[in-house]
Every structure is written in structure tokens, then in C-alpha cells.
Specification:
By secondary structure, the chain is an alpha+beta fold. It has 4 helices and 11 strands. The strands form 2 sheets. The chain has a 9-stranded mixed beta sheet with strand order 4-3-5-6-11-7-8-9-10, with no helix packed on it. Strands 1-2 form a two-stranded antiparallel ribbon. It is elongated and about 75 Å long.
């Protein structure tokens, strides 16, 4: 268990968390001293104490790069966040991260979602509700052009319509299976389906939050 902080040490730590969350980088010692109305030497000593008590770590003794740690000694959530684009429309032939039809960005925990070029796609309809994917949810996806059986994928049908379904490869066709008995599986020729990504997580949308 980490040692408790004094009020002054907690004040500096809270200030660091706020600035990292706001700007994405740690403030300089000069800025900390000026905004908290304490001396430069006091800031340096407090940072050293916070490091000794394992509330943060620095790349080097004089480095401005400060890594805030959580209770388990991992990077604090505010320093693990990354933005991924929310795709409004899936287009064939372009990597997801290169498309221009974005509907904003989503903040995710980079420790949970460490992949590169991730994207989010808004779910429309209830065809995947038994897999816990509800209308208006955001599906977090990693870009892929292939799929394994039983994976939930983003597939582009006839180069036009994007859908999120469970993938099954049969000898003569591709099956895209919903997770709702009210919907039927769809069968396609191999050249009718382009896999665009694999669903690796879900962020609950407004309708899901009402449940």
C-alpha cells in the first residue's frame, strides 16, 4: 500500500492530473510553481516525494515527462486515453482511418484497446442484441480484411451497405449471422462481401443506457 500524501502533496498531484487531462502533457515546474503559488524548489521536492511514494514516475531526474500512476502502479487513466474516429459511412477500397466521413471522435483506454488505426462504427438496429450490441451503440473495431469463423465483423455488402454480423465461412458461400431470432442469416457469394474490420469492444449508446 502506498504512503498517504500530505495536503500540499495531494494538491500538486491533483493539479498534475488536471493539466494532463486538459492538455495531454505534463506542465513544467515553472508553471506548477506559478499557478500553485509555491517555490520552484518546493515543486521539485514534492515531485521527488510523489515519485518515491509511487504516485508518479519520470523518464529522468530532470525530465518534464511525468507519468501519473494509479493504485496498481499502472499509468493513470488520464494518460492512457486515445482518440479513435467514429465512422459515419463505410467505403470500399479505403482504410478506415483514411476516410473523411467521420462523425467525431471517441476517447478509449489505450491499455484496453492498444491496436493501431482503430475506428468506431455506430450500430443501427437490433439484429445483434443477443450479443450485447444494441441500437445506437458504438462498436470499436480493428481494421481487418479477413475474418475467422464466429468472429463479429464489419462487412461491406455489394460495395455499398455496411453491416455488423457474426461471420461464418462455408465451402460455397459466406454466412453473416445475426444475434437475434427475429432476423435471418444472410448468404453471399465470396465476391459480394468485403471484410472491413473485427469488433473488439462496445461503448454503450444512449438507448443502452436507458435499460
Amino acid at each position: 500500500m502506498r504512503q498517504k500524501l500530505t495536503p500540499s502533496q495531494q494538491k500538486v498531484l491533483d493539479f498534475l492530473k488536471h493539466k494532463v487531462k486538459e492538455n495531454g502533457i505534463s506542465p513544467s515546474l515553472r508553471i506548477i510553481a506559478a499557478e500553485l503559488a509555491i517555490s520552484h524548489a518546493a515543486v521539485a521536492q514534492t515531485l521527488k516525494t510523489l515519485e518515491n511514494k509511487e504516485y508518479l514516475k519520470r523518464d529522468g531526474r530532470y525530465s518534464r515527462t511525468i507519468h501519473i500512476l494509479d493504485d496498481r502502479g499502472d499509468l493513470h487513466f488520464t494518460q492512457r486515453q486515445k482518440q479513435i474516429p467514429v465512422i459515419g459511412h463505410v467505403t470500399a477500397g479505403l482504410p478506415m482511418y483514411a476516410q473523411q466521413e467521420w462523425e467525431g471522435h471517441l476517447l478509449v483506454d489505450a491499455k484496453i484497446y492498444p491496436g493501431q488505426n482503430l475506428f468506431a462504427l455506430k450500430i443501427q438496429g437490433s439484429s445483434m442484441k443477443n450479443a450485447g450490441i444494441l441500437d445506437q451503440d458504438l462498436a470499436i473495431c480493428e481494421p481487418r480484411q479477413y475474418a475467422h469463423n464466429k468472429e463479429i465483423v464489419v462487412a461491406l455488402i455489394h460495395h455499398e451497405e455496411a453491416t455488423v454480423k457474426r461471420f461464418f465461412l462455408h465451402p460455397d458461400f459466406i454466412e453473416l449471422r445475426p444475434e437475434n431470432p427475429d432476423f435471418r442469416s444472410q448468404k453471399y457469394e465470396f465476391d459480394e462481401v468485403l471484410i472491413q474490420g473485427k469488433v473488439i469492444g462496445i461503448v454503450r449508446g444512449p438507448k443502452g443506457l436507458e435499460i
